Amino acid sequence: MGECCPSQLMAAVAILLLSSESVVSAVAAVSAPQTCGPQTICKSNSTCCPDTFSDTQYGCCVLPNAVCCHTPLGSGLARNYCCPQGSQCSTNGCVPVQHNYPCGPSQGNNCSVSFTCSPGPLPWVPEEGIRNVVVIGDSVSIGWTPVLKQILANATGKQRAFVTHSPASGDGGARSTSDMLQCFDYRLSTSVLEPLPLSPGDIIVFNFGLHDYNLGLGGADEYETELLSLTQKMLKATKAKLLFVLTTPVHNGASPEDNPTVVELNVRATKIMKQLNIPILDLYNPIISKCGPVPWADDGPSACSLCAPECKKLVVHYTPTGYEFIAAHVASKLEAL
After folding, report:
1. Is the peptide bond before 200 cis (omega within 30 degrees of 0)?
2. Are 242 and 280 in contact (CB under 8 A)?
3. Which tens digits make up the pLDDT trace of 113-147?
4. Helices 284-291 & 320-336, crossing angle to 10 degrees?
5. C-alpha–C-alpha distance, residues 215 and 144, integer Å
6. What was the pLDDT predicted at 89?
7. Residue 131 to residue 158: CA distance in whole angstroms
8. In 10 A of CB 277, how many CB atoms?
9. Measured between alpha carbons, how far is residue 20 from residues 15, 69, 128, 288 in Å?
10. DSSP state, 218?
11. pLDDT averaged over the chain?
12. I need a labelling partner for 21 at 20 to 30 A (CA). Which of 64, 92, 194, 243 fits?
């Protein structure tokens, strides 16, 4: 596969500076398929866009001939999204605002503008005799996946495994159920759109919830419908075993409804996985058992060792100690599969 030289890239992506401080947009032409540098390929009906959180620095917008946008966040990073052809970027999304995305009802920023789909993991050659474990999830799973990778790389016998995360990105990772449905083909492919090299002995560990609780308890029906749909699609699309991970607590949310919503989403997810005979890993209750009811303080008797001394700041995330705790539970469950 040849690399796209600078002249080709400049011919494919025209950069229009709308503001030196807030918003940059780019209109990218569509070809079939699109090669966005040496490590990313987008489908023919998508648009190649920059993605500063992607491991390859590119992502794929699901809209054809889209306007690629980003709002700088500092430190060389940006919030990437895309708008329909003919739109312009702004700090509030697309102008004019157009909700023409195959992404379900309104789901906060995940659907009010169309985020680019970060690519799947970089291609790898399966090693004979060891399992492949692909983790599909959000920023929390991005936090514990490196620890799990180290645990399973150092394991012996059949427990030794290669571990990778999809998408290959930082920020919110696979985000919401709506985003998974929108980016499904990219989540189950490598960054160059080759099907993930998975066999019946391999495992996909997946979770959705922390990017769905923003809809509140009223959004539980949408979550259930979309989670059922995407799980059924995964069962048809892969030979690998599936393992669903229940969502971890919102330990310091902005609303008192946040964590009860997660509890309800876990109830809905449990029902679906039992219906489809997919094993479940409960991470929620072991964390609550260790740290007590939310919210957790940064110090004192109400602090949690998995996020202290920054529990309030981390909101849903954890310190390295917390991710080690979570990864150990995941590794233990995988050992039993």
Report:
1. no
2. no
3. 466 789 999 999 998 889 999 999 999 999 999 99
4. 140
5. 25
6. 83
7. 8
8. 8
9. 12, 13, 51, 46
10. G
11. 85
12. 64
For 121, left (φ over 0), alpha (ψ -120 to 50), or beta? beta
Supply the pTM of this predicted model.
0.86
For residues 175 and 196, give the distance between their C-alpha atoms in angstroms, rounded to a whole number: 20
DSSP E strand boundaries for 24-102: 24-28, 34-35, 41-42, 47-50, 58-61, 67-74, 77-83, 88-90, 93-95
First to last CA, the chain: 37
Whether cis (ω within 30° of 0) applies to the bond prior to 123 is no
Q: How confident is the model at residue 292 (pLDDT cuts 50, 70, 90)?
A: very high
pLDDT value at residue 92: 67
Separation of alpha carbons 167 and 129, rounded Å: 25
The H or E element containing residue 15 is strand 13-17
Q: Which of 46, 53, 55 minimizes the C-alpha distance to 12?
A: 46
User: Rounded distance, CA 318 to CA 329, Å?
Assistant: 15
Instruction: State the Cα–Cα distance between residues 39 and 55, nearest whole angstrom.
Output: 9
What's the Rg (C-alpha) of the chain? 20
CA atoms within 13 A on the CB side of 282: 10
Residue 18's pLDDT is 35
List the one residue out of 315, 167, 172, 337 whose CA is nearest residue 244.
337
Three-class secondary structure of residue 241 per DSSP: strand
pLDDT of residue 115: 66
What would the DSSP string read from start to end of 110-168? HHHTB--B---PPP--PPTTSEEEEEE--HHHHHHHHHHHHHHHS--GGG-EEEEEES-
Phi, psi for residue 11 in degrees, rounded to 5? -75, -30
